[in-house]
TrEMBL record:
Homotetramer. Forms an RuvA(8)-RuvB(12)-Holliday junction (HJ) complex. HJ DNA is sandwiched between 2 RuvA tetramers; dsDNA enters through RuvA and exits via RuvB. An RuvB hexamer assembles on each DNA strand where it exits the tetramer. Each RuvB hexamer is contacted by two RuvA subunits (via domain III) on 2 adjacent RuvB subunits; this complex drives branch migration. In the full resolvosome a probable DNA-RuvA(4)-RuvB(12)-RuvC(2) complex forms which resolves the HJ. Has three domains with a flexible linker between the domains II and III and assumes an 'L' shape. Domain III is highly mobile and contacts RuvB. The lineage of its organism: Bacteria, Bacillati, Bacillota, Bacilli, Bacillales. GO terms for molecular function: DNA helicase activity; hydrolase activity. Residues 72-91, 107-126 form the Helix-hairpin-helix DNA-binding motif class domain. It is found in: Cytoplasm. Belongs to the RuvA family. The RuvA-RuvB-RuvC complex processes Holliday junction (HJ) DNA during genetic recombination and DNA repair, while the RuvA-RuvB complex plays an important role in the rescue of blocked DNA replication forks via replication fork reversal (RFR). RuvA specifically binds to HJ cruciform DNA, conferring on it an open structure. The RuvB hexamer acts as an ATP-dependent pump, pulling dsDNA into and through the RuvAB complex. HJ branch migration allows RuvC to scan DNA until it finds its consensus sequence, where it cleaves and resolves the cruciform DNA. Transmembrane segments: none annotated. The gene is ruvA. This is Holliday junction branch migration complex subunit RuvA. Residues 150-197 are annotated as: Domain III. It comes from Scopulibacillus daqui. Gene3D superfamilies: 5' to 3' exonuclease, C-terminal subdomain, DNA helicase RuvA subunit, C-terminal domain, Nucleic acid-binding proteins.
Length: 197
């Protein structure tokens, strides 16, 4: 899978942006393409998710890995497709969406287009408790953009990519959170702790 694309913003529409990288223009569907309005002609990095179905191959793009993680989780909920996921993320406040899920706040979720009470309940049922590994204690994502929390999030994603289960990762997470390490050092420490147990 393409993790991210770094390139120059060439075009913006109401649904997507076009990023040019090495002479290729990538059409990337975004929650709110107009946030890139001031970046035309500038180089940006956008985190991507490739969505493949029988009748569609599409590339979705996000400002952060956290946004992308929320989008992927939303797609796993019955009744939510890519359009619904993008509509929820278009608010630009993924941490508020997660807070609403954790606090079972249906009223917040039904504000989004196409989300009724039934779907809001399904989101809460399917996703409550699934974000702690990515978002710490639901601190605003901006606060975690730099420093140990960002490194820890990167390490957790790497451990999952290596095939470790959430249960295995949760066992060692409290010991990792008390440290201030680089992503690589977090991974090494997590592996050391897992081997010990």
């Amino acid at each position: 899978m393409i993790d991210y694309i770094t390139g120059t913003v060439q075009h913006i529409s109401s649904e997507y942006i076009v990023i040019e990288n090495n002479g290729i223009g990538y059409q990337i569907l975004c929650p709110n393409p107009f946030v890139y309005q001031n970046h035309i002609g500038q180089q940006i990095t956008i985190y991507t998710y490739q969505y493949v179905r029988e009748d569609i191959i599409a590339l979705y793009g996000f400002k952060s890995r956290e946004e992308r993680t929320l989008f992927i989780h939303l797609l796993s909920v019955s009744g939510i497709g890519p359009k619904g996921g993008l509509a929820i993320l278009a608010s630009g406040q993924p941490e508020n969406v997660i807070q609403a899920i954790e606090e079972e706040n249906e009223q917040y979720l039904i504000k989004f287009p196409g989300i009724g009470k039934k779907t809001a309940r399904q989101i809460i049922l399917d996703l409550k408790g699934k974000f702690k590994d990515y978002f710490g204690l639901l601190a605003p994502i901006e606060d975690n953009a730099v420093g140990p929390n960002a490194a820890l999030e990167e390490a957790l994603e790497a451990l999952k990519a290596l095939g470790y289960s959430e249960r295995e990762i949760k066992k060692v997470l409290p010991k990792l959170e008390s440290k201030d390490l680089t992503a690589e050092a977090y991974i090494k420490e997590a592996l050391r702790l897992m081997l010990k147990s």
